[in-house]
Amino acid sequence: MSNDELLSFGLKDQSQNTTNEQTAHISMDKAEYDGNLEIQRMEANIGVIQAGKMSSRKMYIKNMQTGSKTVFVKVEYSISVPTKQTQITCSCQKEEFITVTTVSPFDVAVKLQSMKFEEIENIQAEEPFILLPELTCTSPWPVEFKSSQLQMPTNIQSTDEETVSQIQGVCLNKKECATECFCLITKSTSQTSTSLGTYTVSWRRKWDSDVELPFVTTSFPLPVVNIEHIPISVDLRLPAYGSVKQLLPLCYVIHNRTSYPQEMEVSMEPNDNFMFSGNKQIHFRVLPGKPYNLMYNLFPLMAGHLLLPKLAVNMVRYPGTIDPIVQKMLPSHVFIKPTGKTLSAGV
């Protein structure tokens, strides 16, 4: 007859490896990790097991680092053996070792793009840019995402009033990827570089079981980028599309980012796609913190994805240096629809 049995479960050589306390967490019967102290060894009394019967317990392990760990499962029990004169109690134990390999569930790659969706390495002060975190599943099991969040420094903020996770409820299989898109802007600062903060993802392994696994959070540091301080910025306000031989109004808004008035020289270079009305060449002054509007009316001559007339910008204080920067800010093309045919009244 078997008496009470004691089941032990944990990490091998925990007394010799002091780093286990920071790299692994185990639980029994229920997957509970967050908010609890990390445990390296658990014991449970599983009672008396009658001959021919079976008892089972579920055990969970959460590794905080990739690599291999050895897990032990130990059963200590006693058996009473009757003899002719008395009953002998034998104390026994059985121990098994399992090597568990932990892999990274997904990789995160971060890209920076301008508002024209062109890849950039540096960001500009007080100008919006796009942050694209791309998650690629490397797990042999599907990974389910609950939410994501950006923790940004004080000099970086979102252009949206409310930022919603774009991967909520998404499930990725191995080699599949998902990308989020955040539009951010830097505040006025004298810093020449800044960290973009931290990207945090809440996720879990998805499996077909009645057991509900908890979501865990993983944080990834975002890169440190250089901040370019430019004296002016130019925005172009134009319709999403135009039509052949119909008026297409444009408005260039020039912002002075410095604390001094700036003398500007602007010229509009025509092309074969449009006729336009407005100042072909103009000299003006932009006051600090005050926008200056340049209005043009374009008349499309053909249909398609057409190159816009180029607005060449020059600053008297910084001659020949600002135009290449301005061209990266401005859209270069616009879509022009063909003129539709009008049906006759008798059709």
TrEMBL record:
InterPro entries recorded for this chain?
A: Gryzun
Name-wise, this protein is Trafficking protein particle complex subunit 11
Origin species: Mytilus galloprovincialis
Where is composition skewed (Polar residues) in this entry?
A: 13-22
Tell me the leader sequence span: none
Span of domain Gryzun putative trafficking through Golgi: 160-314
Pfam families, from UniProt?
A: Gryzun
Region labeled Disordered — which residues? 1-22
